[in-house]
Amino acid sequence: MRKKVNVFKWKKYECEESLEDDQSDEQTTLFSEPFGNNFDFSINSDLTGSNVKKYIFDYDDIKYYYVDDFTIDIIADEGEKVSFENAIKNRLITIEDVFKKRQEEYFYYDGGSKFYKHSNFCIRKCKYRDDSYSIILGPNEDVNKLCDW
After folding, report:
1. Which of 1, 65, 80, 93 could join 53 via S-S bond, C-beta 3.0 to 4.6 A?
2. Residue 8: pLDDT above 80?
3. Rounded Cα distance, 64 and 45, in Å
4. pTM of the model
């Protein structure tokens, strides 16, 4: 039996592996290493003007939302393109990596909410009374109006 290594998910510099009976010993990589700061954003926007937040996913006790039909893809320096959701869930980037690429940052006096302005989109990090967070991504400052308190 030959050992075939499948990298399922990047986890703090450790990879899970499984043994399979296979005729080849080539390595199959399903996800790559974290991008670090070597990534950019690809914005997809088909706005209706309604400024309604749409749930995307939960990850690490944070709810993520887009505004209308606005979406973001992450592009690595090597040209690899992955959806924002997959990049976060597979630890290719962290939300803190995205925050670091901001052009402007504003704090709110509610105990932890923040606003991040990038060159072509905005993020609102909403902090709630129970210390939970949600992240709202959109094309403009209207994300500020969409926190539920």
Report:
1. 65
2. no
3. 17
4. 0.73
